[in-house]
């Protein structure tokens, strides 16, 4: 078993997603949870191969908004 697990392109995508998540976590307090979660979801979908603009932008925005407002007003959880 001398070969690495997975292709080099696959590992590149993994490290890119981890980098994006780390960068967004670094700036979350300044830009807020809604924008941060939207950026992470959109960039991750794009990196993993989604090219439909509705699914790459619209769906992450909808889900981020539902989670943000549900947590803040429904569950009364303070978010950054």
Automatic annotation (TrEMBL):
- This protein is called Tripartite tricarboxylate transporter TctB family protein
Could you list the residue ranges that cross the membrane? Answer: 15-48, 55-77
- Species of origin reads Marinomonas rhodophyticola
Keyword terms, alphabetized: Membrane, Transmembrane, Transmembrane helix
């Amino acid at each position: 078993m001398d070969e690495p697990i997975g292709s080099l392109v696959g590992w590149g995508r993994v490290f890119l997603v981890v980098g994006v998540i780390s960068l967004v976590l670094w700036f979350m307090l300044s830009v807020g949870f809604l924008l941060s979660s939207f950026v992470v979801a959109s960039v991750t979908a794009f990196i993993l191969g989604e090219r439909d603009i509705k699914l790459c932008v619209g769906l992450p925005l909808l889900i981020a908004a539902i989670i943000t407002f549900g947590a803040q007003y429904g569950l009364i959880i303070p978010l950054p």
